[in-house]
Amino acid sequence: MTGRVLRFGSSVHKVVDALLPWYVNGTLEGDELEGVRRHLGECELCRREAEWLRKPRIGAGRIQRVPRLAPPARGSAAGQAFQ
Questions:
Q1: Is residue 38 part of a domain?
Q2: Which of 18, 45, 58, 75 is 20 to 30 A away from residue 27, measured at CA?
Q3: For 66, which DSSP code?
């Protein structure tokens, strides 16, 4: 969490701000998608916000899966901790 807060004056900015996560992850559709695209074409502030939201997704794509480990054997210290 960065503590970053953007202030939006108009209701259009508020609506676009609420829809940006769905726009960025590619699940926004229909009129909402078109409205956000249109607004992003006109508004530098919202374009920067959309770009900022994309950054964590880029990094998350590089995360590798951790192999599953077998549960601790019964009787071991780790196994007893969960009983």
A1: yes
A2: 45
A3: P
Burial of 20 (0-12, 13-18, 19+ CB in 10 A): buried
- Domain annotation covers residue 35: yes
Residue-range definition of the domain harbouring residue 41: 11-60
Residue-wise pLDDT tens digits, 23-49: 998 998 888 999 999 999 999 999 999
List the one residue out of 53, 49, 14 whose CA is nearest residue 35.
Answer: 14
Of 56 and 44, which is predicted with more confidence? Answer: 44
Q: Give the confidence band of 17 by pLDDT, cuts at 50, 70, 90.
A: confident
pTM for the full model? 0.57
